């Protein structure tokens, strides 16, 4: 850890920042740091308790326990209750765009024609100190209506559309498991979640409330109702500190962990005065399935391309989320289309867009109230599908009682059902390439990377990384479809061949860090235990 560069006055005694960048004093004012310090001291002990509960639960899964619906919360699931009324700005969310928080992206997303823009400090942002501060400044200017951006060569000047024509802003802070190492309180790093949400709320919550725009947040990677209750208390505390009405800050929770899918009613209940919906964070959900069952040889998934939403465990997850949300008066948001337009090959691009269309038809037909895209060019396609199939602002009338007609035991079996499929050599090598290229870009400060016409972020890279680890550590061994055993010799060959395969790597995002990324992936895959998140060891390597 670098030397502490800034000590605060008595108002913020005990808090320090470990880096100083030009202009950060305008964001991290003494009052803002005091606000963050209060959040840390109030909630850090509970955060650590929840993280320890995760570790205990994963140890149980490693020992053979399977996730299940909780007996102690059965009355919540059986109860006749609904969440608070959804605000007008969030009633129609048929198309949402996601992406990082750099100024150009913020302008393009808000101007994109999507209903909502999820400004992402989590999976699509590499959390360098510069990226975080730049993102917070960009969002603050966007809220104020003053954000603009000039292309470096001066060829184009980006400005915001009028407020009424912009997408509704929803901010996603980083998850409970991450620290913000550049802000230390009483000698320990503060929660990245509290930093991201706290800084944004401190500077923008009152202005957004005055515009009847929340503020609104997406909450990532929750695993239990207790974690949701912690968020609810944090938000209530912030509302009180900023003089906002209780329940002013609204949230949508991403259901992107396997444990959370068994507690969706409970998560809605814990946040019932402020929750607007749940989202099928399918890429992280697949990653969570892999991580939860990392020691279960009978639940090894086939290669990533074969793990689609038609697989029983994903189909059931999506449909149960729809039923649960609509029963409680909340929106059920669909998952992200990671495709980006394929230039130079009209036929390949047509096939890719037809796959996106089929996926969105599946979502709206199942009963989802909206969907995500990663690229602005997909917005018209997604909107056309939802406009055709969804007659109102949402479709909460689609209750999907057919899903809940099943018993808890039947639902559990479907949610945990292993997937059928194969692992090809191309699939194995693609996982290696995606991991290395994404890690290199992430280490270089880019958290959202186009690879093979897919927009890869931390969630999709995690699928590739965790699959490699599970395949390599499986006992008995796993084989490619041609009979070749998946072992460390196969991995070594793929890694050795990668630099020549990426001969033009200096032109790739993070190309100068390809070798460092190869070394890190090699270390992660050889480890005896699957690292919870690749961003944990990688975070130590960035500024």
UniProtKB/TrEMBL annotation:
InterPro entries: Malate_synth_C_sf, Malate_synth_sf, Malate_synthA, Malate_synthase_TIM, MS_C, MS_N, MS_N_TIM-barrel_dom. SUPFAM superfamilies: Malate synthase G. Its EC number is 2.3.3.9. Residues 423-542 form the Malate synthase C-terminal domain. Keywords: Glyoxylate bypass, Transferase, Tricarboxylic acid cycle. Residues 21-74 form the Malate synthase N-terminal domain. GO terms for molecular function: malate synthase activity. It is an enzyme of class 2 (transferase). The keyword Zinc does not apply. Belongs to the malate synthase family. This is malate synthase. It comes from Lysobacter dokdonensis DS-58.
């Amino acid at each position: 850890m670098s030397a502490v560069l800034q000590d605060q006055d008595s108002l913020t005694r005990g808090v320090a920042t470990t880096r100083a960048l030009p202009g950060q004093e305008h964001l991290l004012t003494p009052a803002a740091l005091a606000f963050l310090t209060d959040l840390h001291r109030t909630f850090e002990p509970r955060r650590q308790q929840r993280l320890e509960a995760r570790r205990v639960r994963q140890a149980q899964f490693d020992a053979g326990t399977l996730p299940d619906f909780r007996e102690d919360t059965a009355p919540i699931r059986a109860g006749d209750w609904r969440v608070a009324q959804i605000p007008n700005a969030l009633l129609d969310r048929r198309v949402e765009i996601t992406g990082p928080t750099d100024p150009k992206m913020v302008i393009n997303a808000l101007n994109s024609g999507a209903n909502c823009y999820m400004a992402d400090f989590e999976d699509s942002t590499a959390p360098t100190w510069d990226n975080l501060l730049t993102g917070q400044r960009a969002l603050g200017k966007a809220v104020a209506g003053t954000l603009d951006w000039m292309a470096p060569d001066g060829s184009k000047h980006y400005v915001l559309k009028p407020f009424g024509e912009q997408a509704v802003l929803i901010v996603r802070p980083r998850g409970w498991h991450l620290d913000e190492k550049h802000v230390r309180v009483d000698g320990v790093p503060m929660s990245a979640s509290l930093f991201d949400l706290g800084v944004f709320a401190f500077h923008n919550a009152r202005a957004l409330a005055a515009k009847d725009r929340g503020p609104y947040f997406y909450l990532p990677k929750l695993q239990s109702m207790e974690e949701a209750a912690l968020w609810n208390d944090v938000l209530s505390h912030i509302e009180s500190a900023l003089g906002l009405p209780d329940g002013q800050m609204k949230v949508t929770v991403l259901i992107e962990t396997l444990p959370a899918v068994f507690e969706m009613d409970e998560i809605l209940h814990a946040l019932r005065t402020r929750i607007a919906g749940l989202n099928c964070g399918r890429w992280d959900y697949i990653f969570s399935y892999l991580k939860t069952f990392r020691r279960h040889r009978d639940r090894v998934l086939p290669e990533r391309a074969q793990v689609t939403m038609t697989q029983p465990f994903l189909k059931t997850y999506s449909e149960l989320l729809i039923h649960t949300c609509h029963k409680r008066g909340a929106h059920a948001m669909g998952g992200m289309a990671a495709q980006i337009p394929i230039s130079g090959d009209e036929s390949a691009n047509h096939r890719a867009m037809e796959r996106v269309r089929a996926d969105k038809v599946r979502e709206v037909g199942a009963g989802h109230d909206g969907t995500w895209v990663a690229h602005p060019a997909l917005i018209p396609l997604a909107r056309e599908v939802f406009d055709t199939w969804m007659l109102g602002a949402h479709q909460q009338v689609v209750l999907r009682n057919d899903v809940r007609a099943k018993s808890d035991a039947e639902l559990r079996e479907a949610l945990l059902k292993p997937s059928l499929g194969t692992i090809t050599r191309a699939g194995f090598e693609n996982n290696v390439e995606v991991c290395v290229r994404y890690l290199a870009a992430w280490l270089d400060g880019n958290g959202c990377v186009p690879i093979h016409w897919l927009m890869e972020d931390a969630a999709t890279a995690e699928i590739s990384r965790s699959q490699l680890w599970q395949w390599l550590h499986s006992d008995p061994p796993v084989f490619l479809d041609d009979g070749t055993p998946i072992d460390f010799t196969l991995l070594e060959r793929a890694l050795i061949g990668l630099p020549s395969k990426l001969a033009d790597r200096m032109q790739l995002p993070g190309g100068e860090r390809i070798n460092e990324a190869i070394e890190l992936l090699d270390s992660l895959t050889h480890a005896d235990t699957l690292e919870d998140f690749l961003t944990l060891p990688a975070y130590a390597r960035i500024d």
